[in-house]
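Consider what follows.

. . .
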Amino acid sequence: MALRHYTLDFKLSTPVDSATTVPHLLSIFHEQEMTETVHETNGHGYLGTFVGKNGRLAILRVHSHGLVTVDLQCYEEDNIAQLDNLLNALETKLKMILNVNITRIKRLPALVRGAEVDRYWPTTDDRLLEYDMDQLVYEEDSPYQNIKILHSQQYGNVLILDDDINLAESDLTYTQAIMGNGRESYAGKEVLILGGGDGGILFEMVKQKPKMITMLDIDQKVIDACKKYMRRTCGNILDSLEGDCYQILVQDCVPVLRKYVQEGKTFDYVINDLTAIPISTEPEEDSTWEFLRLILDLSIKVLHPSGKYFTQGNAQTMTEALRLYEEQLKKLSCPVGFSKEVVCVPSYLEQWVFYSVWKK
């Protein structure tokens, strides 16, 4: 059973006395058959809770520093019209009482907690986003990660790995960016894709008629889920693990990369779609940074001298993490150059950075 949480905030130019404010509001709560309990705040204004029928709970705070807040919680099945009337009455009464002292009023849509389909996901810098997710299409734990596919009315089906939004069917711009945004010709070239289990890169790449694409992804369950539920992204490319110009190897990419290094095998393009740059700013202590450095080093070793390495970075707001990644590029076994571009990926709802790296 989901819970709806409403908020109503009044920002004030000067503090107000709760003794002259609260009594005017009590009748509104009493009309809703809600019982007041006053709590000790140790000099930090007024705090009252009001409990009513059907599990309703209201929290009224008159803060000592010029802020009045109302929180209203109810079950999703409650009478929404009655709740709107309660909030409207409180807002109207507070406008009358506080009058010229008000600098801002903010009333947000209800936060729905505990719903069957989770619609709230954080950005990389911990801002909360609400999506229009309305259906859990698929969920399963593989030996490597939790896999979810949720349906969004705007973005289509959305692949979520370990509670991190990876790719939606709307996100062709991601795939185009990690392939160089149309600036590269893959015709007749040898291409290595690391990760990419959603099939988006592979599906777009075969259209370019390369000589051969090798895709390495460790998780068969991701491939199977996307083959069935992400077809706007992958088309029919995942229906078979091999085709005229591609092969999908369901293996850990690290030993395969080491084998390619030993054999002297090289690729014209390496596209790393394994993971974003870690947001941790401790690259010497974070195991994800260690993995990233290993993949980067091995990828450059199997890259043809005139080839290019493409990868996603992270959100544009993660400036320190991006700076640290660029420092890692300077520490590789051979000197490299790089460029980056910022792209809007629809389902991410934040600007995303992509890198192109080449040997000097």
User: Anything to note?
Assistant: Residues 32 and 52 are 7 Å apart (CA to CA).
